[in-house]
Amino acid sequence: MSNPALARITAGTSPEEAVEIILRDGGVIVEGLFDEATVQGLRADLDPVLDAVDTGHDEVFAGNRTRRASGLFAKTEHMVTVALNPLYHRVAELILNKPIDVFFGEEAVPHPAGMHIGGTMAIKIGPGQGAQPLHRDDSVWLWRHPEYRREARVQIMVAVSDFTAENGGTLVIPGSHLWDDHRAPRREEAVPTEMKAGSALIWIGSTYHGGGENTTTDSHRFGLSMGWDLAFLRTEENHFLTYNLEQIRKLPEEIQRALDWSSEHYLGWAEVAGQMSDPLDLLKRDDYTSLDAGLPTTL
């Protein structure tokens, strides 16, 4: 008996319908989510970057025939297109940004959870690379299932090249987001993600998945991944060491906020002259010139 495949939708599918499928199955394939210009732009920008780095140094997780690069907002302008894609961004909002009532004095006030970008990664799986161990991305926060009763991450994997069962298309176990933490994933339960360049896999942090085995002799599987995460969780990628001020200032304000250059719900402020200041305000100041120079001393 074959394992169930992930459902397929189109870029014109409503976010609400996409969320319904993702919460049912753990993920969904969106066909044709990005146009040819975006795909070609990603290849042109990121192929040289990946060609210049070494493969991973282990056979188990990073892969010794796989090349990876992060900090992608400084390496390609098309990263903004991926992060703010209307379908993906709205799906992440609907799943993650659920408010919780908290008391300020005797008044209960809805407190949005918020979301930020946890990390970015371009990944090229080379011929002969073995399959990655199946895992849940929310394990980095020791997330518990089903006790926490909410998702920590909504992830996307953009196919920059075609994904096939032979070249390492991402392995997913449909329905595994509903499992508790006592059930181990088995390789035979996973199905490979097969999709054309420009399509994308969207899944949630509780779904078991992993890079597939590349059994070809001459084909690289090229994917680009990022995650929208709950804003109060630590990011996997350290954005403050990854990007300099000049790079951050070139980005749209929505991306600046998503990379934690903001102060929302009392998280992320910086003290300036005795006041809790929003980093977004610091970015607009001429006297804030570099991280090495430190914070201004006056408002």
Automatic annotation (TrEMBL):
Keyword Oxidoreductase (UniProt): yes
Pfam family, one: PhyH
InterPro entries: Phytyl_CoA_dOase-like (IPR008775)
Keyword annotations from UniProtKB, A to Z: Dioxygenase, Oxidoreductase
Gene Ontology MF: a single term: dioxygenase activity
Protein's name in the database: Phytanoyl-CoA dioxygenase family protein
Organism whose genome encodes this protein: Streptomyces litmocidini
Lineage summary: Bacteria, Bacillati, Actinomycetota, Actinomycetes, Kitasatosporales
